[in-house]
Design goal:
Shape: elongated
Oligomer: single chain
Structural class: alpha/beta
CATH topology of the largest domain: FAD/NAD(P)-binding domain
Order of helices and strands: EHEEEHEHHHHEHEEEEEH
Helix content: 25-40%
Strand order of the largest sheet: 7-2-1-11
Number of domains: 2
Distance between the termini: 14 Å
Length: 235
Amino acid sequence: MVVGAGFAGLAAALDLHDHGLSVVVLEARDRVGGRVLSVELENGELAELGAEWIMPEDEVVQATIDRLGLTACDAGVDYLRREPRGRAAVPMAEFDIFLEAADAHLASSNASGSAMGSMLDAGPGDDRARVVAKARLQGTFASDLDHVAWRAGWHAGRLAAEPAVYRRMARGNQSIADAAARLLPDVRLGRRATSVIERRGRVEIGAGDDRIDADAVVVASDSCGNSLPANDVTT
């Protein structure tokens, strides 16, 4: 049994299925994909409401795309080195100068527990570039920068990088999850797991009023984990 049909759950289920095991996937939502969700706009264009970019180093994702017979295309935009646009924009050369100063500020700082927002405010550099950097990073983390750790966050959302080619799926990133689910014999949507209990070497999964018996369970869903009482989970 695999609980959760996001990318992690689908990858686990495919691996088990490839090894000849019988696998059932439970998913609380009415779709697969988890935090990946692609929608079609009224003009026919696709928009990603979840994970958007396929990074150059995402070799496992690319191997999965190839296995599923799908097509990834160039995004046409550099994820890390997007040129600032709009009324508040600064030239890329000025932006690079600010980013280099921020790098030096991080290297010389001992405030490892500080928030990214306050550290960017305290660092040197042009204020116009500072506004652009903060807006760009806030979008990356989808969070107020006062809630993002400075040292870890700066490297995770790093903007000062060499140009690279980033990709996305021609039919939306959710097409990866949809294609993976089609290879699995038993994916049950709208079935939220509410308990996982070990009984005599086997596992019982509660899903609403149902109790499902299995040899083992892979829990690959944070929404399930957040809803399970601690004493109902046995590992």
